[in-house]
Amino acid sequence: MANTYTQIYIHMIFAVHDRKSLITESYSENLYKYICGICQNKNHLIYAIGGTKDHIHILIGMHPAESVSKLVQIIKSQSSKWMNDNYYRGDFGWQSGFAAFSYSKSFVPLVKRYIDNQKEHHRRKSFREELISILDKSGIEYNPDYIFNEVKAE
Asked: Which domains does the chain have, with CATH numbers?
C-alpha cells in the first residue's frame, strides 16, 4: 500500500503539579490556544480542549508518526515553559504522569461534548472521582494509593 491511512482518536488527561489551581479563567483560553498550536505544528488535529483550574483534557486526532507519550511530553514541556514565561515565573508545572484513552470515530462527538462541559461537570464531581470513573469504565487497573501521588524512588 503506497499511502498510510489512520484514524486514531486519543483523549488525554493530565493535571497541574500537586493539582494546584493555576489554570485560571484569565489564562485558560491562551493556554488552550498555545497547546493547539503545538499539536497542529506536529500534524495532529485538535477536536476539543478544556478543563478546570487543576487539570486539562485534550481530544486529538493523532498523526501516526508520533507516540502518545512523546506528544504528551512535548505538550507538557512546551506549555509549562510558556506558562512560566508569560504568567508564573517558574511556579507552573504539570504532574509527571498522564491518562490517555483511545476512542472510535463514533465516540468523538460524545467525548468532545464531555470536554466542552468540564466546568459544569466538575460542579458535581471532583477530578479524582472523574478520573477513577473513566479508569473504571475503561477497565484500566490502577493502585488507588498512587493515583494522585507522585511515586517516590526508594
From this structure: 9-138 (3.30.70.1290)
The single-letter DSSP state of residue 122 is: T
The distance of Cα 59 from the centroid of its chain, to the nearest Å, equals 8
Tell me whether residue 57 is exposed, middle or buried, using C-beta atoms within 10 angstroms of its C-beta: 0 to 12, 13 to 18, 19 or more: buried
- CA R_g for the chain: 16
Taken in order 116, 132, 141, 56, the sign of the CA dihedral is positive
Segments of the chain with pLDDT less than 50: 151-154
CA distance 105 to 62: 12
Q: Residue 14's closest CA among 61, 81, 80, 76?
A: 76
* CA nearest to 28, candidates 69, 68, 57, 2: 57
pLDDT of residue 19: 87
User: Burial code of 119-139, b = ≥16 C-beta within 10 A, e = fewer?
Assistant: eeebeeeebeebbbebbeeee
- 13 φ/ψ angles, rounded to the nearest 5 degrees: -135, 130
